[in-house]
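User: Sequence recovery, please. Input:
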């Protein structure tokens, strides 16, 4: 049994994950040098907790996890409601603080919602693949998706909400939803985006979009962090300025360097070779996840793998977008999307 489990492990995913964790911890060591390494200590604690949890989950059949997903889904909905009544941090009620320990329920909701969506879609398709295209069945899937998404928007956390939307899109696409729904959705999005931008989004959200498209609009204000991140990336050149020696990082020009702009720190202090390696590791992770989805023994496994692959892909795109100002890695993104398109779930 143990030999079979170890044989079926996708070692490429595990190795890529470990390498990213190591690079991340090294980067955090530099980023937290002037703050008594507080963020680094928290991250090490999470890694220490995550490794035994990962080992336990490896030996649990995903079908069992799927069976208890309704319970997990209910728990996470309660947590998403409860977090709305906490004290705001940077304008968002997204975190539970318990002493020195803090966690964000939305991060757990990403995985649990993928599990729940996979279970719902699989049950719908037991009567036939075309069942997913019936209005009543789609409504059930949308309801499952809408509850956590709306609660996350209320925090507000638009980035995580976008991750939920992308998960839904990819999972329905792989599930074989009819093209008329895809075309209709695209038309609705094209109509809705400008309406949301002009009449719904708050001013700070509009500003972030405008500055993302053109950081020079407000170089000393909203565009300052992006411009500094570009300077950091350029300063790293091929081999980097050396750990603890980055000008933008260590002199405080790069903020927040422990989260949104950690990639800029890596590029400045470790250079192009390491930062390019990070991007390659993400691409390998996503392609390996897509391969798992394609070769899974059943639809449930395929949908879970696709949802998780989407999560990795979107975090990779968002991180690179934050640190570089403009998304220049179109070729990598297009390649990943083509791989998704080739999935042929039977």
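Assistant: Recovered sequence (346 residues):
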């Amino acid at each position: 049994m143990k030999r079979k489990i170890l044989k079926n492990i996708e070692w490429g995913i595990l190795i890529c994950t470990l390498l990213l964790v190591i690079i991340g911890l090294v980067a955090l060591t530099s980023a937290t040098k002037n703050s008594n390494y507080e963020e680094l200590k928290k991250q090490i604690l999470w890694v220490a907790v995550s490794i035994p949890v990962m080992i336990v989950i490896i030996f649990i059949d995903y079908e069992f996890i799927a069976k208890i997903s309704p319970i997990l889904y209910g728990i996470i909905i309660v947590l998403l409601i409860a977090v709305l009544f906490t004290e705001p941090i940077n304008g968002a009620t997204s975190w539970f603080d318990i002493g020195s320990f803090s966690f964000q329920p939305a991060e757990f909701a990403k995985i649990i919602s993928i599990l729940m969506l996979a279970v719902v879609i699989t049950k719908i398709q037991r009567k036939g693949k075309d069942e997913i295209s019936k209005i009543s069945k789609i409504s059930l899937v949308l309801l499952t998706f809408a509850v956590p998404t709306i609660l996350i928007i209320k925090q507000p956390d638009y980035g995580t909400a976008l991750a939920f939307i992308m998960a839904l899109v990819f999972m329905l696409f792989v599930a074989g939803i009819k093209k008329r729904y895809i075309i209709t959705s695209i038309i609705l999005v094209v109509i809705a985006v400008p309406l949301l931008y002009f009449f719904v989004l708050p001013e700070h959200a509009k500003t972030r979009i405008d500055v993302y498209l053109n950081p020079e609009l407000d170089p000393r204000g909203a565009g300052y962090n992006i411009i500094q991140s570009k300077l950091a990336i350029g300063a790293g050149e091929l081999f980097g300025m050396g750990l603890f020696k980055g000008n933008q990082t260590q002199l405080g020009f790069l903020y927040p360097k422990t989260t949104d702009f950690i990639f800029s720190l890596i590029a400045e202090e470790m250079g192009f070779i390491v930062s390019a390696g990070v991007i390659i590791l993400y691409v390998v992770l996503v392609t390996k996840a897509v391969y798992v989805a394609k070769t899974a023994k059943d639809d449930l496994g395929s949908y879970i793998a696709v949802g998780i692959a989407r999560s990795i892909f979107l975090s990779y795109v968002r991180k690179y977008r934050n640190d570089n100002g403009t998304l220049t890695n179109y070729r990598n993104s297009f390649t990943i999307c083509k791989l998704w398109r080739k999935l042929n779930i039977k």
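The beta strands are 96-98, 101-103.
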